[in-house]
Amino acid sequence: MSRTDERKDFAHTGPGTLAGRYLRRFWHPIQVGEALQVGRPVRVQVLGEFFTLWRGEAGTVSLVQDRCPHRQTLLSLGWVAGDNIRCFYHGWEFDGGGQCVAQPAEKAGFAAKVRIRSYPVRDYLGFIFAYLGEGEPPEFRRCPELEESAGGVAVHSHPVPCNYFQRVENDLDELHVHFVHSATTGPLGLDELPEIRVSETEYGIRREGIRSGSGMNITRVAHFMMPNISMVDLPPSPAHRYWTITASWRVPVDDESMMTYAIRLKGGSKKESGDGEKRHGARAIEPSPSQVTEDVLAGKLRIQDLDPDYPGLFQVQDNVALAGQGRITDRSQDWLGQSDIGVILLRRIFERELGALADGKPLKDWKRPAERLDLAVSQVRELADLPG
Question: Among candidates 243, 240, 201, 251, which has minimal Cα distance to 223?
Fold first, then answer.
């Protein structure tokens, strides 16, 4: 691949790729916190690499490289010993910082010479975040819009069967709501095509879909935080019957699949929700949105025939529109129009930043403000007060 082409290759994020080097400069969620049980290590794949993740007996979360350096066995097959992990093969034991602390069959002093790669982690808002890059991690971004919610938040993750950048571009595409999600938004009365406005900010891109404000046709606001976070006013759907705020991270698994990690404001007051229920995972959806997506893509059923009240409808609609482009698409074939100004701006920013990284020049230091971002929903005391 030529240097020019590499700067336009936002899709490939494996080790050593330009986009992969760029994304590794940021924190990413890699697991739902509740899914990581004490004493049960798991193997996770992020950005085309595998890692071993575990929660120790004291609740401490640790992340290290995938394999034991002794004979390359998967560390995730082993045991948790206190807050350490012990290899299944020969019992080599490592602490959360990657230092080998025990080797049952070796001479004393050998363990001190062995250290594996470890990674900083944070347990925040129901997700486990990791920094997978070189050097010191950047400042961890907090989300006051979600931390201070009266009704609490719902936390969930789901796979998306395509490259992460296709999903990221969708976050800058206001117009698709009226077509991809028309089975829901049309009957609700969100039927006015918006005027799209976008601008680069200190954190990424601010997007507006300008509408008249009558009925459900409010002006929707979205904030895209580089390189892969969307915070948006979300209209009612089969999964939630009210306007809400959702923050979503689009995290590459490999080049042809990704995970969405999403936090959504729940409706109701703190009194109604109860302090003990502020954060929880979403209930499993049946049938699985992943299976329904594959059935639609395989031609076994049509998305237009799905039950409008199916809780996984929004997921399936987006997944089909995105994976319908191919698992990883050739963007040089696109004919972009005026409604794609958000996508155009996003591509320009990525090309600029990847070019700076390739040339060893300073990158933009993306910073979000400490105060709440301006969202229509955030100005309403209770979500139930909004239309719908």
Answer: 201
Q: Going by C-beta distance under 8 Å and a sequence separation of 6 or more, which residues neighbour residue 267?
A: 151, 240, 241, 242, 244, 382, 383, 384
pLDDT of residue 1: 57
Q: In terms of Cα–Cα distance, which of 253, 313, 261 is closest to 288?
A: 313
Q: Where in the chain is the domain with CATH 3.90.380?
A: 144-385
CATH fold of the domain at 27-131: Rieske Iron-sulfur Protein (2.102.10)
**In this model, does residue 272 exceed pLDDT 50?**
no
- Cα distances from 144 to residues 203, 269, 369, 385, in angstroms, run 15, 17, 10, 21
Residue-level pLDDT at 381: 32
Q: Beta 204-210 vs 195-200: how paired, if at all? A: antiparallel
Q: Which residues pair with residue 197 across a beta bridge?
A: 208
At 320 the three-state DSSP class reads helix
What are the pLDDT digits (tens) for 287-341? 999 999 999 999 999 999 999 989 999 999 999 999 999 999 999 999 999 999 9
Amino acid at 284: A
CATH code of the region 144-385? 3.90.380
Which amino acid does the sequence have at 29? P
> 220-225 and 229-234 as β-strands: parallel, antiparallel, unpaired?
antiparallel
- pLDDT band for 248, please (50, 70, 90 cuts): very high
